[in-house]
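Issue: ligand-bound run for guanosine-5'-diphosphate - logging full I/O for the record.

Environment: standard queue, default settings, no custom constraints.

Inputs:
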Amino acid sequence: LVRLRARLARSQNSLGKGLLTLLSREHLDEDTWEEIEETLLTADVGVKPTQELVDRLRERVKVLGTRTPQDLRSLLREELLTLVGTDFDRVVKTESAADTPGVVMVVGVNGTGKTTTTGKLARVLVADGRSVVLGAADTFRAAAADQLQTWGERVGARTVRGPEGGDPASIAFDAVKEGIAEGADVVLIDTAGRLHTKTGLMDELGKVKRVVEKHGPLDEVLLVLDATTGQNGLMQARVFAEVVDITGIVLTKLDGTAKGGIVVAVQRELGVPVKLVGLGEGPDDLAPFEPEAFVDALIG
Ligand code: GDP
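Outputs:
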Protein backbone atom coordinates (compact mmCIF):
# COMPACT_ATOMS: atom_id res chain seq x y z
CA LEU A 1 0.00 0.00 0.00
CA VAL A 2 2.85 2.33 0.85
CA ARG A 3 4.41 1.57 -2.52
CA LEU A 4 1.13 2.30 -4.28
CA ARG A 5 0.79 5.58 -2.46
CA ALA A 6 4.30 6.56 -3.44
CA ARG A 7 3.62 5.74 -7.06
CA LEU A 8 0.37 7.65 -7.03
CA ALA A 9 2.09 10.60 -5.44
CA ARG A 10 4.81 10.60 -8.07
CA SER A 11 2.35 10.72 -10.90
CA GLN A 12 -0.17 13.08 -9.38
CA ASN A 13 1.50 15.74 -7.35
CA SER A 14 2.12 18.18 -10.14
CA LEU A 15 -1.53 19.25 -9.90
CA GLY A 16 -1.71 19.87 -6.18
CA LYS A 17 1.79 21.29 -5.94
CA GLY A 18 1.05 23.62 -8.83
CA LEU A 19 -2.11 24.83 -7.14
CA LEU A 20 -0.35 25.38 -3.83
CA THR A 21 2.42 27.35 -5.48
CA LEU A 22 -0.08 29.55 -7.28
CA LEU A 23 -2.16 30.11 -4.14
CA SER A 24 0.98 31.12 -2.25
CA ARG A 25 1.80 33.99 -4.58
CA GLU A 26 2.05 37.32 -2.88
CA HIS A 27 -0.57 38.90 -5.12
CA LEU A 28 -3.55 36.76 -6.01
CA ASP A 29 -4.54 38.79 -9.05
CA GLU A 30 -6.86 37.83 -11.89
CA ASP A 31 -4.00 36.37 -13.89
CA THR A 32 -3.15 34.05 -11.04
CA TRP A 33 -6.76 32.88 -10.70
CA GLU A 34 -6.76 32.21 -14.42
CA GLU A 35 -3.61 30.16 -14.05
CA ILE A 36 -5.24 28.20 -11.25
CA GLU A 37 -8.21 27.57 -13.51
CA GLU A 38 -5.94 26.47 -16.31
CA THR A 39 -4.03 24.13 -14.04
CA LEU A 40 -7.28 22.41 -13.06
CA LEU A 41 -8.56 22.20 -16.62
CA THR A 42 -5.26 20.79 -17.82
CA ALA A 43 -5.54 18.09 -15.17
CA ASP A 44 -8.93 17.07 -16.64
CA VAL A 45 -11.00 18.22 -13.66
CA GLY A 46 -13.67 19.46 -16.08
CA VAL A 47 -15.18 22.91 -16.64
CA LYS A 48 -17.94 22.97 -14.06
CA PRO A 49 -16.04 21.44 -11.15
CA THR A 50 -13.12 23.77 -11.93
CA GLN A 51 -15.37 26.78 -11.78
CA GLU A 52 -16.90 25.62 -8.51
CA LEU A 53 -13.53 24.98 -6.93
CA VAL A 54 -12.09 28.31 -8.05
CA ASP A 55 -15.15 30.16 -6.70
CA ARG A 56 -14.82 28.38 -3.37
CA LEU A 57 -11.08 29.04 -3.17
CA ARG A 58 -11.52 32.73 -3.98
CA GLU A 59 -14.13 33.08 -1.30
CA ARG A 60 -12.15 31.26 1.34
CA VAL A 61 -8.81 32.90 0.58
CA LYS A 62 -10.50 36.30 0.89
CA VAL A 63 -11.51 35.66 4.50
CA LEU A 64 -8.20 34.05 5.40
CA GLY A 65 -6.22 37.24 5.91
CA THR A 66 -2.65 36.03 6.17
CA ARG A 67 -2.00 33.02 4.02
CA THR A 68 0.43 30.76 5.80
CA PRO A 69 1.56 27.70 3.81
CA GLN A 70 -0.16 25.54 6.43
CA ASP A 71 -3.48 27.41 6.05
CA LEU A 72 -3.36 27.14 2.30
CA ARG A 73 -2.51 23.49 2.36
CA SER A 74 -5.36 22.53 4.68
CA LEU A 75 -7.81 24.77 2.83
CA LEU A 76 -6.88 23.23 -0.50
CA ARG A 77 -7.01 19.75 0.99
CA GLU A 78 -10.53 20.32 2.31
CA GLU A 79 -11.81 21.74 -0.94
CA LEU A 80 -10.25 19.01 -3.07
CA LEU A 81 -11.74 16.39 -0.77
CA THR A 82 -15.18 17.96 -1.15
CA LEU A 83 -14.71 17.90 -4.90
CA VAL A 84 -13.64 14.25 -4.96
CA GLY A 85 -16.47 13.33 -2.59
CA THR A 86 -16.24 11.50 0.72
CA ASP A 87 -19.82 10.18 0.95
CA PHE A 88 -19.81 7.67 -1.88
CA ASP A 89 -20.01 3.97 -1.09
CA ARG A 90 -16.85 2.81 -2.83
CA VAL A 91 -16.94 -0.85 -1.85
CA VAL A 92 -16.99 -3.25 -4.81
CA LYS A 93 -20.03 -5.45 -4.26
CA THR A 94 -18.93 -9.03 -4.53
CA GLU A 95 -21.50 -10.53 -2.17
CA SER A 96 -24.72 -11.68 -3.72
CA ALA A 97 -28.05 -10.72 -2.21
CA ALA A 98 -29.24 -14.18 -3.23
CA ASP A 99 -27.90 -17.64 -2.49
CA THR A 100 -25.68 -17.50 -5.57
CA PRO A 101 -22.14 -16.21 -6.18
CA GLY A 102 -21.67 -12.48 -6.36
CA VAL A 103 -21.50 -11.54 -10.02
CA VAL A 104 -19.34 -8.67 -11.25
CA MET A 105 -19.36 -7.64 -14.89
CA VAL A 106 -16.36 -5.67 -16.14
CA VAL A 107 -17.01 -3.41 -19.13
CA GLY A 108 -15.04 -0.82 -21.08
CA VAL A 109 -13.34 -0.11 -24.37
CA ASN A 110 -10.61 -2.52 -25.49
CA GLY A 111 -7.18 -1.42 -24.40
CA THR A 112 -8.35 0.37 -21.26
CA GLY A 113 -7.15 -2.48 -19.05
CA LYS A 114 -10.32 -4.53 -18.63
CA THR A 115 -8.75 -7.96 -18.69
CA THR A 116 -5.84 -6.90 -16.51
CA THR A 117 -8.25 -5.35 -14.01
CA THR A 118 -10.38 -8.50 -13.95
CA GLY A 119 -7.24 -10.57 -13.24
CA LYS A 120 -6.01 -8.22 -10.53
CA LEU A 121 -9.42 -8.16 -8.89
CA ALA A 122 -9.49 -11.97 -8.90
CA ARG A 123 -6.13 -11.94 -7.19
CA VAL A 124 -7.34 -9.59 -4.45
CA LEU A 125 -10.45 -11.71 -3.87
CA VAL A 126 -8.55 -15.02 -3.79
CA ALA A 127 -6.00 -13.52 -1.40
CA ASP A 128 -8.99 -12.62 0.74
CA GLY A 129 -10.00 -16.27 0.87
CA ARG A 130 -12.83 -16.11 -1.67
CA SER A 131 -13.18 -18.60 -4.49
CA VAL A 132 -13.47 -17.02 -7.92
CA VAL A 133 -14.63 -18.14 -11.36
CA LEU A 134 -13.61 -16.02 -14.35
CA GLY A 135 -15.81 -15.68 -17.44
CA ALA A 136 -13.85 -14.85 -20.61
CA ALA A 137 -16.68 -13.18 -22.48
CA ASP A 138 -14.36 -10.91 -24.46
CA THR A 139 -14.48 -13.07 -27.56
CA PHE A 140 -13.74 -10.13 -29.81
CA ARG A 141 -10.08 -9.60 -28.98
CA ALA A 142 -8.34 -12.82 -29.97
CA ALA A 143 -5.87 -12.99 -27.08
CA ALA A 144 -8.22 -11.83 -24.34
CA ALA A 145 -9.37 -15.29 -23.22
CA ASP A 146 -5.78 -16.61 -23.09
CA GLN A 147 -4.73 -13.54 -21.15
CA LEU A 148 -7.54 -13.98 -18.65
CA GLN A 149 -6.85 -17.68 -18.29
CA THR A 150 -3.19 -16.92 -17.57
CA TRP A 151 -4.31 -14.57 -14.81
CA GLY A 152 -6.68 -17.26 -13.55
CA GLU A 153 -3.91 -19.86 -13.39
CA ARG A 154 -1.61 -17.42 -11.69
CA VAL A 155 -4.09 -16.49 -8.95
CA GLY A 156 -5.95 -19.80 -8.61
CA ALA A 157 -9.27 -19.16 -10.33
CA ARG A 158 -10.93 -21.32 -12.95
CA THR A 159 -11.60 -19.64 -16.30
CA VAL A 160 -14.70 -20.45 -18.33
CA ARG A 161 -14.16 -19.72 -22.00
CA GLY A 162 -15.71 -20.49 -25.35
CA PRO A 163 -14.60 -20.63 -28.95
CA GLU A 164 -12.93 -17.56 -30.45
CA GLY A 165 -15.59 -15.24 -31.81
CA GLY A 166 -18.22 -17.17 -29.85
CA ASP A 167 -21.26 -15.70 -28.17
CA PRO A 168 -20.22 -13.60 -25.14
CA ALA A 169 -23.61 -14.04 -23.51
CA SER A 170 -23.43 -17.81 -23.62
CA ILE A 171 -19.96 -17.74 -22.04
CA ALA A 172 -21.20 -15.39 -19.32
CA PHE A 173 -24.14 -17.73 -18.75
CA ASP A 174 -21.82 -20.74 -18.49
CA ALA A 175 -19.47 -18.92 -16.16
CA VAL A 176 -22.23 -18.12 -13.69
CA LYS A 177 -23.58 -21.65 -14.02
CA GLU A 178 -20.11 -22.98 -13.27
CA GLY A 179 -19.79 -20.61 -10.32
CA ILE A 180 -23.06 -21.88 -8.89
CA ALA A 181 -22.12 -25.53 -9.50
CA GLU A 182 -18.76 -25.06 -7.76
CA GLY A 183 -20.26 -23.07 -4.94
CA ALA A 184 -17.87 -20.23 -5.82
CA ASP A 185 -18.06 -16.95 -3.95
CA VAL A 186 -17.61 -14.61 -6.90
CA VAL A 187 -17.90 -14.74 -10.69
CA LEU A 188 -16.02 -12.05 -12.60
CA ILE A 189 -17.01 -11.56 -16.23
CA ASP A 190 -14.66 -9.85 -18.66
CA THR A 191 -16.56 -8.43 -21.65
CA ALA A 192 -15.66 -7.04 -25.06
CA GLY A 193 -15.69 -3.30 -25.66
CA ARG A 194 -16.40 -2.54 -29.26
CA LEU A 195 -17.49 1.02 -29.48
CA HIS A 196 -17.93 1.52 -33.19
CA THR A 197 -21.66 0.90 -33.10
CA LYS A 198 -23.65 1.76 -30.06
CA THR A 199 -26.47 -0.60 -30.96
CA GLY A 200 -24.00 -3.47 -31.32
CA LEU A 201 -22.55 -2.75 -27.91
CA MET A 202 -25.98 -2.31 -26.41
CA ASP A 203 -27.17 -5.59 -27.86
CA GLU A 204 -24.14 -7.44 -26.64
CA LEU A 205 -23.83 -6.05 -23.12
CA GLY A 206 -27.62 -6.07 -22.70
CA LYS A 207 -27.69 -9.72 -23.63
CA VAL A 208 -24.81 -10.60 -21.28
CA LYS A 209 -26.66 -8.84 -18.48
CA ARG A 210 -29.95 -10.58 -19.24
CA VAL A 211 -28.52 -14.08 -19.34
CA VAL A 212 -26.50 -13.52 -16.16
CA GLU A 213 -29.67 -12.35 -14.45
CA LYS A 214 -31.37 -15.62 -15.32
CA HIS A 215 -29.20 -17.12 -12.59
CA GLY A 216 -29.55 -14.32 -10.07
CA PRO A 217 -28.75 -10.66 -9.53
CA LEU A 218 -25.88 -8.85 -11.21
CA ASP A 219 -24.19 -7.30 -8.21
CA GLU A 220 -21.72 -4.89 -9.74
CA VAL A 221 -21.00 -3.45 -13.18
CA LEU A 222 -17.54 -1.91 -13.24
CA LEU A 223 -16.63 0.47 -16.04
CA VAL A 224 -12.90 0.48 -16.77
CA LEU A 225 -11.53 3.78 -18.04
CA ASP A 226 -7.98 4.65 -19.02
CA ALA A 227 -7.07 7.76 -17.04
CA THR A 228 -4.67 8.91 -19.73
CA THR A 229 -7.43 9.34 -22.32
CA GLY A 230 -9.04 12.45 -20.81
CA GLN A 231 -12.08 13.75 -22.66
CA ASN A 232 -12.11 10.67 -24.84
CA GLY A 233 -12.53 8.53 -21.76
CA LEU A 234 -15.44 10.68 -20.65
CA MET A 235 -17.14 10.20 -24.00
CA GLN A 236 -16.72 6.46 -23.66
CA ALA A 237 -18.16 6.59 -20.17
CA ARG A 238 -21.23 8.38 -21.49
CA VAL A 239 -21.87 5.73 -24.14
CA PHE A 240 -21.49 2.84 -21.72
CA ALA A 241 -23.73 4.50 -19.16
CA GLU A 242 -26.47 4.68 -21.78
CA VAL A 243 -26.11 0.99 -22.48
CA VAL A 244 -25.83 -0.53 -19.02
CA ASP A 245 -26.24 0.61 -15.40
CA ILE A 246 -22.70 1.26 -14.23
CA THR A 247 -22.28 0.84 -10.48
CA GLY A 248 -18.60 1.69 -10.16
CA ILE A 249 -15.63 3.04 -12.08
CA VAL A 250 -12.10 1.64 -12.28
CA LEU A 251 -9.56 4.23 -13.41
CA THR A 252 -6.54 2.49 -14.86
CA LYS A 253 -3.09 3.80 -15.76
CA LEU A 254 -3.28 6.48 -13.12
CA ASP A 255 0.44 5.78 -12.75
CA GLY A 256 0.97 7.08 -16.26
CA THR A 257 -0.64 10.47 -15.96
CA ALA A 258 -0.53 13.60 -13.86
CA LYS A 259 -4.14 14.26 -14.82
CA GLY A 260 -5.79 12.96 -11.69
CA GLY A 261 -8.63 15.42 -12.19
CA ILE A 262 -10.36 12.81 -14.34
CA VAL A 263 -11.55 11.22 -11.08
CA VAL A 264 -13.70 14.27 -10.42
CA ALA A 265 -14.88 14.65 -14.00
CA VAL A 266 -15.99 11.06 -14.49
CA GLN A 267 -17.81 10.85 -11.17
CA ARG A 268 -19.72 14.00 -12.12
CA GLU A 269 -20.45 12.66 -15.56
CA LEU A 270 -21.91 9.36 -14.35
CA GLY A 271 -22.92 10.09 -10.78
CA VAL A 272 -21.09 6.88 -9.90
CA PRO A 273 -18.01 6.57 -7.67
CA VAL A 274 -14.50 5.61 -8.66
CA LYS A 275 -14.05 2.40 -6.65
CA LEU A 276 -10.67 1.10 -7.80
CA VAL A 277 -7.56 2.52 -9.39
CA GLY A 278 -4.94 0.81 -11.52
CA LEU A 279 -1.42 1.96 -10.74
CA GLY A 280 0.65 -0.27 -12.97
CA GLU A 281 0.71 -3.49 -14.96
CA GLY A 282 1.72 -5.81 -12.16
CA PRO A 283 -0.56 -8.13 -10.20
CA ASP A 284 -0.51 -5.98 -7.07
CA ASP A 285 -1.16 -2.71 -8.84
CA LEU A 286 -4.87 -2.42 -8.16
CA ALA A 287 -5.97 -0.42 -5.16
CA PRO A 288 -9.22 0.71 -3.60
CA PHE A 289 -9.79 4.37 -4.32
CA GLU A 290 -9.36 6.33 -1.11
CA PRO A 291 -10.24 10.02 -1.43
CA GLU A 292 -8.00 11.13 1.44
CA ALA A 293 -4.95 9.26 0.20
CA PHE A 294 -5.64 10.51 -3.30
CA VAL A 295 -5.92 14.15 -2.27
CA ASP A 296 -2.83 13.85 -0.08
CA ALA A 297 -0.98 12.46 -3.08
CA LEU A 298 -2.24 15.38 -5.15
CA ILE A 299 -0.94 17.94 -2.72
CA GLY A 300 2.32 16.08 -2.19
P1 GDP B 1 -8.37 -4.67 -22.37
O1 GDP B 1 -8.29 -4.73 -23.86
O2 GDP B 1 -9.25 -3.57 -21.91
O3 GDP B 1 -8.72 -5.98 -21.74
O4 GDP B 1 -6.91 -4.24 -21.89
P2 GDP B 1 -5.73 -5.07 -21.19
O5 GDP B 1 -6.15 -5.57 -19.86
O6 GDP B 1 -5.20 -6.04 -22.15
O7 GDP B 1 -4.67 -3.89 -20.93
C1 GDP B 1 -4.11 -3.15 -21.99
C2 GDP B 1 -2.70 -2.73 -21.58
O8 GDP B 1 -2.75 -1.79 -20.51
C3 GDP B 1 -1.84 -3.87 -21.10
O9 GDP B 1 -0.55 -3.70 -21.60
C4 GDP B 1 -1.85 -3.72 -19.58
O10 GDP B 1 -0.72 -4.26 -18.97
C5 GDP B 1 -1.92 -2.21 -19.44
N1 GDP B 1 -2.51 -1.78 -18.16
C6 GDP B 1 -3.67 -2.18 -17.60
N2 GDP B 1 -3.88 -1.54 -16.43
C7 GDP B 1 -2.83 -0.70 -16.23
C8 GDP B 1 -2.47 0.26 -15.20
O11 GDP B 1 -3.17 0.49 -14.22
N3 GDP B 1 -1.30 0.94 -15.39
C9 GDP B 1 -0.50 0.73 -16.47
N4 GDP B 1 0.61 1.45 -16.57
N5 GDP B 1 -0.81 -0.14 -17.44
C10 GDP B 1 -1.96 -0.86 -17.34
